[in-house]
Amino acid sequence: MYRHLLVPLDDSxxxxxxxxxxxxLARTLGARVSFLHVHDQHPAPADSxxxxxxxxxxxxxxxxxxxxxxxxxxxxxxxxxxxxxxxGHPPHEIILDTARKSGCDLIFMAPHGxxxxxxxxxxxxxxxxxxxxxxxxxxxxPQDAGLAHPMVEVIRGExxxxxxxxxxxxxxxxxxxxxxxxxxxxxxxxxxxxxxxFPLALHRPSEHDYLFFVLRGRTAVVHxxxxxxxxxxxxxxxxxxxxxxxxxxxxxGQATLGQLRDAVETYAHFMWEHMGRIEGVVLPAAQRYLSExxxxxxxxxxxxxxxxxxxxxxxxAYRQLFSCIAHLAPP
Length: 331
Known about the structure:
Structural class: alpha/beta
Radius of gyration: 20 Å
Helix content: 55-70%
CATH topology of the largest domain: Four Helix Bundle (Hemerythrin (Met), subunit A)
CATH superfamily of the largest domain: nmb1532 protein domain like
Oligomer: single chain
Strand order of the largest sheet: 3-2-1-4-5
Number of domains: 2
């Protein structure tokens, strides 16, 4: 029986689906999981994880966020795990070498990666791992994105928007020296306002008030996880508000750049874990246990008159602040 799974993850939006399948398999087998991300020394794709206006997060920060989400999902399901980021080419050789060195007895992979040719059954790296190695490989079944209710993508999109701002903020703090101090402070104030006002107004109601409420009525499988996530929502608000205070302390010379970065990184790590639990545990459970009528009820509640989504002025302000961040961010 397999005891140690190696799970290579690319940087696509669908990687968390591979995480969920691998972790559930490992839980069934009583196995542990090692997540791996290989930087293949090619530029990151132009996708929705990029900052508006072409402002991309660093590859390392993106990989750290991905693996933090993966580990959070595994721990939430009681599966022992670890993760590694490696650099090298070709990726399949790094994957096979890692499996051998780590004593993994099964490699669990997605059926394709972002470089797979359109219509290809298996991506290039998956094919190479299957044919070039001596470690057993299990290729997960492809996920039909068209089967998911639009509200699933809405929640994922809210996570991507918040992630884009956090990646941009960390990138800015690592490259702040050559920038004009006044512009940097103005940009960070805009980022802090975004984090305090809009993600809380959008994704917290979508999750806490609508999705969690309906899901609790359909299954007890994730009750403990929902309890923990609701506690995290309360902590999230306090941490987000603290970031605004830290920016003002920095502007007044009462905090160093390093202290501010530590605060942003702590919040970002907390949010990566939160997103990992939502995307890797709660959304898969919701897709399993909720009916189309349930999802429609969630969508109707989220867009009811008087809600943030139905408020045109609020939506315009949301877009304006996002645009402000993009405009002020360095190229």
